[in-house]
Amino acid sequence: MNETMKGYINGKIYTVDKDFRQAEAFLLKGDRFLLVGANEEILSQCGAGVEVIDLQGKTVLPGLIDSHLHVVNSGIMKLELNVRNKSREEIKAAVAEAAGKTEKGRWIIGRGWNNDEWEDRSYPTKEELDVVAPEHPVYLKRACGHASWGNSEAFRKAGITENTPDPAGGEILRNPEGKISGMVTDQAQEFFNKAIPPYDAEQHARIVKLAEEEFLANGLTTIHDAGTAQEIVDVWDRLYAEGQLKVRIYVMLRVPGRPTTQELLEVSERYFQQGIRIGAHENRLTARCFKLSNDGSLGARSAWMLEDYSDRPGHRGNGKLTDDELYRIVKNARKAGFQVAIHAIGDAANRQSLNIYERVFHEIPGRDHRYRIEHAQIVSKEDIPRFAKLGVIPTFQSIFVATDKANADDRLGPERIKGAYAWRTFRKSGCILPNGTDSPVELMNPFINMYVGITRKDLHGNPAGGWYPEESLTRQEAVQSYTTWSAYAGFEEHLKGSIERGKLADFVILDTDIMTCAEDVIKDIRVLETIIGGETVFKRP
After folding, report:
1. Which of 68, 171, 268, 429 has the smallest C-beta neighbourhood within 10 Å, fewest atoms?
2. What is the pTM of this model?
3. DSSP class of residue 68?
4. What would you report as the CA-atom Rg of the chain, rounded to the nearest whole angstrom?
């Protein structure tokens, strides 16, 4: 390893140590922080041959850690049709354009639409896509990833007919006449997953490198990848060995696609037998977590609720696993030494996850588990204290407030909303809150994410006083949510998350001081440089 020494001076450095201490300078040796302190202290250690870099008063934070992001899908957004932030008509125009450039019969795949942003918020229909692309199968995932929109040709290729029953944990939406509407949710997406040709290993190599470019430009030095198959992780492993990847990835292994319960049991057992992997390629790649999905999303009305949706009587969303099925997998993971992360958005999914965790911890006590619930978005108020009591980490995505506020009140009603996006309530109960963006569900920009967490506003500054502002984060908490708290959620607080002697020299240089700038400026902060292990891996032109 390169043991070159390098000094950085004249900075406004937020170390994010336990005292949230500020410093002026630090000294690197190889890929670690050697000394952190005042300018004079660092300069006294910079002898001949030590490069000294003048930060000129710029702000420095530890390397940012997104605790929940999808590496593959973030990269795929650069290859497939990106329909984020587009209106209904703009999406149809984009599909028509793609159809004109694509061989007849070949799939047109895309992602990013959000009907809650449209003037007409109703779900789209297959007929709308049939008009613009009658000779291509078209399949467009909703931004949340838990619902998809297809045309008639896509449904034909997927083998879905009017008589196809809803699979467990998913729904084929139908119009009032009982005909297929053009929408599917959650497990019903698996029909399409099996029909669409998969990417091969070389394509996956390109995908992760495309994603990495964006990670580094956004100051993300570590990614907690929220669910990837072992076969794709093997591609990343090869790229690291060849020196082609720089970003650090903490992997949550997940059975690919929308597996049946039997497939989930069989493949997860194979993963457990292979065991965990920690700190490969100079602390670039770790795979010690197993990811499960327990329900869908609020936007798709597939989040699993204890009571009916307020805007759809008789419907409570989609739970995906029985108590016995979830218990068996979580217990097997525990015995194999894996951390477990369960996607749970609805209050029923969160309660079931907590109940199963509690049962397994009672049967197999000891060992620092740091089990996680990903999103913990809508939680019964009586269940919130159980997280800290059980040592379960609620990871969250503050950016969701910017978009979900459009439908959350209608979906949940005035009482249930009090346990939704309840970050301050979680903090008061004793929880840390690792933050993420769920990219490509939302933009991976950490400063937009932190801005929403602090203000409870969207990017247009609405609502003026913030949406349920009593649940907002402080600026310090927002920074901790991307540094020390996310490091802890990955068992890596001894390696990263703060600028301290002995830790990995991962840090970012910013154009604005996040702790003192005007509140509405936070979302506009830009990363000037990203440094991983002492190496500058991104520098803004």
Report:
1. 429
2. 0.92
3. E
4. 23
